[in-house]
Structure formats: structure tokens, C-alpha cells
Amino acid sequence: MSVTPAEWAREMAQDAERYALGGAVPAFAVRPAGAVEAAEVVRACAADRLALVPWGGGVSLEGEGRPARYDVALDLTGLDRVTVYDPDDYTISAECGITIASLRAKLAEHGQELPLEAAHAVRATLGGVLAANAAGPRRLRFGAPRDRILGARFVTGDGVLAKSGGRVVKNVAGHAVHRLLTGSRGGLGVLLEASLKLTPHPPARVALAFGCGAAALADAARWAPFARREPAVLSVLGRAAASGLGALDSGAPFTCVLGWEDDGAWLADCEAFAHGKLGTPAQRTEDAGVPAIWQLLADAQETPGPRLTFASGHNSPAALAPLAGRACAERLVFHAPSGRLLLWPAPDEAAALVAELAGLGFVPVEARGLDLPPAKPPATVSALRSALRQALDPAATMALGDWWEQSA
To answer: Are residues 215 and 290 both part of a single domain?
Structure first.
């Protein structure tokens, strides 16, 4: 039997104001208790031509612009169970409404971890991290969520329950629709459950935070040898970005955070090397305290305000030298190993900054909360995306489908 909007309002209604996007408030906000109920809601939206946005903790949705249509918020936090976990397989399957913090606690009991680096992990959900393909400072070492997902159960835009991939690596076959959904921002369907690869806890960890001035940042010869040491983390934060982050606030114009996760003897050698190149760190953290440092770096990526995100082949802090002394450098996060740069510019200087950084080898991949012309994909890519969207969401039920189809 179909679910009607009147039944949503009576039985599953939430406070719709909580789910506003770019000032747009949905008419309904519903929180299904299971996969079948979620699919029924999507099916009803498709039948009534209502536009829907899937919600988890809202971490990466908070900066989204106003959708052209937005009628229903689908809150998935009621789907929060671990469905299959066998530590011997180093894989886990969980419903997508579970928080990253809950998953970490479960895995820590067995000396394992899921290296998804979500900002605000206490409220960020597995589905939200997958939908955003959100990654942090260890992206080069562990990959993005798209690299860790093995399979998924999901709902297509017309309300059909479907699955893709499998629960273990050897069973993953066929078209990898689960990877296509990862990074689609909920624009193609609704992720309900995912299976992912795990990793063991490392034998030892160390994180070092150094204060850095403009001259030290620009010294390419100083930074070049670090790549051969393969740090898990080599991140740079501007003064304002580091402010208030406790162990990451060095008080200097820039804070450089270095970290390794490996055998203890190798870590000791790398730490001595870092001291020789950068001096005494402002803060040193080891072993059990280090994940909190990685979390601070992830949190720094989701500070409020208009944000530009760039990808680059640069893997040295020295690449930031042209920005030193500029206002935009105050709010800056750069994960050097993966070449990912985030800036929070004044809106009136964003366009000029994009053009300038393009000349320095930084390619814009996202402009959040800024009125900039979107980068358009090639015509062949646009045609493929349009066909994929039509196949997965024939009724255009997913409100953020336009974003996915038109993004570069």
C-alpha cells in the first residue's frame, strides 16, 4: 500500500526546519525505521513528482546551495545497525544511518578501523560520508570512500530496492553502481547499507605540529625529502583555520601537522628526521591520542562559510608560497600528499583566486556557497551522466540530481 503525504505528516513527520538547504525548507521531513519503509517513501515521492533529499548528520549538506525543487527530506538516521561483521574478513556491512563514531567504537574492540575521515564524526553518518566521498588528510594512504566500498544496498529514484557489489572482495562483480553512488551527493539514489574494507590498527602512531612562517613554508628544499618518508599526514593550516583547534593551534602564520603510522622504530627515525628539518614541534602526540588529531584536521575542512576546494599534483607545502601573506591564507587547509587545498575566500575575490590558482596548477573541484560559474564537464561526459541519471532516477525524484549531472 502506498505511503501518502498525509501519512508522512501523521506518522513519520520530523521538524522540517532542521533540513533546510540554502534557505529552502521542505514540506515534509520523514524518518523511516527500515529499508522497506525508506523505499516506500521514495516510491511515493516518484509517483507524486516530489523532489527528495537524503539526510544523515547533515555535515556535508550544510553548505549546499538551494535546490531548484525540494519537497521531502528523508532522514536515514533510523537505519543505524551493523548488519554483518566478521573481524577475520576485515570487512563490515552497516546501515547508512550509523554514525562514524559508532562504527569506530565497534571496530576498536577488535583492533580494527575504517579509515573514513569524516568531519564531526559524532553526527556524520556512513551514508553521508559515502555520498560526499569525503576524505581527509590520510587520503593518499587509505584512499577515498569510493576506494573502500565493496558493495551497497540502495533505493533508485523510482523506489526500487537494489544492490550492487558484495560483502567481500572476491564476491565483487558486475557493474560497480555502488561506486557511482559514492560521491553523487544523493543525486542518483538513496544509500541504505554499505560493505567496506577495514584495516588493522597500526603498531604505533605519532603526530607532530610545527609552527611555520612564510619563509619556512616557501623553502622547497626543506620539504622535498619528506615525500620519501611517506608520512600518513602532511597538512598545512592557516592561522585562522588552526585557531581554536587546541593541539593544532601553534600561533604561527601556518601550522604544519606531520604524522606517521607504522613500526615504532621507523616512527622514531622519522620523528628525528622531522626535528632536524623543522626544529622542535609545538605539540607532540603519540599512539592512542593521534586519532583525535586526525579528527581535528577533518573538522577543519567543514568550518562554516563559502569554500573553494582545489585538486593538484603539488605535494609540497612550498606550493602555497604564493599565498603567504594574503588574506585568503588565514583560512587555508592543505593536505599535501593528496594535493587537496581548501580555502574560505571573501566572496568578491573568489573568481580572481580561482583564476590565479589555476595558473599555479590548482584545479577547482568545488565552489560551495559562492556565486561562480560551474565548471562544465566535456559533452561526452554530460551525455553519459544524463543517461545514467535517467536510468537510476527516471522521475527526477532526487533533488540534487541536477548538481550531479552538471558538475565537472
So the answer is: yes
Query: What's the pTM?
Result: 0.92
Q: What angle do CA 120, 124, 128 make, to 5 degrees?
A: 135
pLDDT single digits (tens) 18-40: 999 988 999 999 999 999 999 99
Residues 126 and 43 in one domain: no
Largest CA-CA distance found in the chain, in angstroms, rounded: 70
Residue ranges in 149-190 assigned as alpha helix (H): 177-181
What's the total number of domains in the chain? 3
Looking at the structure, tell me whether residues 144 and 282 fall in a common domain.
no
Q: How far apart are CA 402 and CA 386, in angstroms?
A: 9
Q: Which residues of 171-209 are buried (b: 16+ CB within 10 A; e: fewer)?
A: ebeeebbbbbbbbbbbbbbbbbbbbbbbeebbebbbbbb
On whether both 360 and 287 belong to a single domain, the answer is: yes
CA 148, 153, 154, 156 torsion-angle sign: positive
Residues 155, 189 contacting (CB under 8 angstroms)? yes
* 321 and 339 share one domain: yes
Q: What is the CATH number of the domain that holds 157?
A: 3.30.465.10
**The predicted structure's pLDDT at residue 262:** 94
